[in-house]
């Protein structure tokens, strides 16, 4: 599985507080091993974000990603629930 990161993901990541950045790195390591790991609470998005998925960093923060051909994943956004807009 190959994982890519959009410019938007990095722009939002760089705005996060240091403690959240650490959590993001930890969760991304779990994701790389198994993106369906129950600790991530991975779920499919609906509505305008149909075709995208998200997983939890903590109660307030999420990562949005898209799967292409089951082997290529693009991390699209990271942050609080405002990233869904």
Automatic annotation (TrEMBL):
Annotated protein name in UniProt: Uncharacterized protein
Gene3D superfamilies recorded: RelE-like (3.30.2310.20)
Superkingdom to which the source organism belongs: Bacteria
InterPro entries, alphabetized: RelE/ParE_toxin_dom_sf
Record SUPFAM superfamilies: RelE-like
């Amino acid at each position: 599985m190959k994982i890519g990161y959009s410019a938007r993901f990095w722009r939002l990541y760089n705005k996060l507080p240091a403690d959240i950045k650490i959590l993001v790195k930890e969760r991304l390591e779990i994701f790389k091993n198994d993106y369906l790991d129950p600790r991530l609470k991975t779920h499919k998005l609906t509505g305008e974000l149909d075709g995208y998925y998200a997983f939890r960093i903590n109660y307030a923060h999420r990562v949005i990603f898209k799967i292409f051909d089951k082997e290529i994943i693009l991390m699209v956004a990271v942050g609080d629930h405002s990233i869904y807009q």
